[in-house]
């Protein structure tokens, strides 16, 4: 472990030990690394005898029901200011914490734990930022060790889920030797890989399959075959009865096409606002592409939000994608 990571862990540990009441928040559009990390930090704080309020931006999804302590999650909008003094934001910078971002200035202390290289949190945060980490769950593992807490099977399951989901079941380029070793350690501590895999990948509702049929009809590819994209209009998303988080993995169908180097999904969350997701196979840094449009993320997986009509957003992004591919 580097000196910088040790110094960051020491500072974050001091803040967590000194505080009494914590709000633990993730980013908007939370994934399993985010939710698993939120619940694992909540677990650690309660082990320290602290009051902790774990929250997500938006509704609490049934998809997370298999996660230990999932019943503790609350929608951020239901929390009142008097319930906490300190804020912990995980798996994203402070600006992506939804309503919690507006409360940063009134918090007694702020901790930010993240592995995204585009994190832009400033000096107001006690930062544990390790871009080379496979997942934020990996950093929460380090934090629990540094705090001197004993793992149980439930927190092991949370962290295993965080790591396995953010590495795409160890298929993505962020899969490291350490990620694999930590996964093995977490299995030894009680995480059940088959149980986690079933809930992550092997259970889909009929409403999702109906959504998938319609979504795949929008799949397009560039003339040179290097880019592919799907376009999910507001009408399409409004008419589906699939849970929003069920639709998150749709980009894989553009990415899996042989020859595709850059995959894109346009998701019109409301008229005039488009969420764009990027994936790169090996050649392109999509975090740089996302930053051009005000977003961020990882080298191989990133995204942004555009306040434009859907067709204008498509034209702007695809024009830039074409330029990148020509280069």
Low-confidence segments, ≥5 residues, pLDDT <50? Answer: none
Instruction: Kindly report how far apart the N and C termini lie.
Output: 38 Å
Count the domains. Answer: 2
Q: What class would the helix/strand composition place it in?
A: alpha/beta
Helix and strand arrangement:
Layout: H1 3-18, E1 21-25, H2 32-47, E2 51-56, E3 74-75, E4 86-90, E5 110-114, E6 126-129, H3 136-147, H4 153-166, H5 177-188, H6 193-201, H7 206-216, E7 220-221, E8 227-232, H8 234-239, H9 252-255, E9 262-270, E10 273-280, H10 286-292, E11 296-297, E12 301-306, H11 310-326
Parallel strand pairs: 1-2, 1-4, 2-3, 4-5, 5-6, 8-9
Antiparallel strand pairs: 7-8, 9-10, 10-12, 11-12
Helix pairs in contact: 1-3, 2-3, 2-4, 3-4, 4-5
């Amino acid at each position: 472990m580097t000196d910088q990571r040790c110094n960051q862990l020491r500072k974050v540990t001091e803040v967590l030990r000194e505080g009494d009441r914590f709000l633990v928040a993730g980013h908007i559009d939370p994934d399993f690394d985010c939710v698993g990390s939120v619940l694992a930090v909540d677990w650690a704080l309660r082990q320290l005898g602290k009051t902790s309020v774990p929250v997500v931006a938006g509704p609490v999804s049934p998809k997370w029901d298999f996660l230990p302590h999932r019943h503790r999650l609350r929608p951020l909008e239901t929390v009142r200011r008097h319930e906490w003094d300190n804020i912990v934001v995980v798996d994203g910078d402070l600006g992506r914490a939804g309503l919690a971002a507006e409360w940063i200035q009134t918090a007694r202390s702020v901790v930010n734990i993240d592995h995204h290289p585009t994190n832009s949190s400033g000096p107001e945060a006690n930062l544990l930022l390790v871009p080379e980490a496979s997942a934020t769950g990996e950093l929460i593992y380090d934090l629990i060790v540094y705090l001197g807490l004993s793992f149980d099977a439930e927190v092991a399951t949370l962290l295993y889920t965080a790591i396995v989901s953010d590495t795409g079941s160890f298929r993505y380029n962020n899969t490291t030797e350490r990620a694999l070793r930590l996964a093995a350690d977490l299995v030894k501590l009680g995480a059940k890989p088959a149980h986690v895999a079933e809930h992550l990948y092997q259970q889909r509702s009929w409403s999702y399959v109906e959504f998938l049929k319609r979504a795949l009809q929008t799949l397009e590819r560039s003339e040179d075959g290097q880019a592919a994209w799907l376009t999910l209009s507001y009408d399409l998303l409004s008419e589906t009865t699939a849970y929003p988080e069920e639709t998150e993995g749709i980009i894989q169908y553009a990415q899996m096409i042989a020859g595709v180097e850059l995959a894109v999904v346009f998701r019109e969350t409301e008229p005039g606002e488009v969420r764009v997701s990027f994936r790169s196979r090996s050649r392109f840094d999509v975090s740089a592409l996302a930053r051009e449009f005000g977003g961020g993320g990882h080298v191989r997986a990133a995204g942004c939000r555009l306040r434009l009509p859907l067709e204008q957003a498509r034209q702007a992004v695809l024009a830039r994608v074409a330029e990148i591919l020509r280069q």
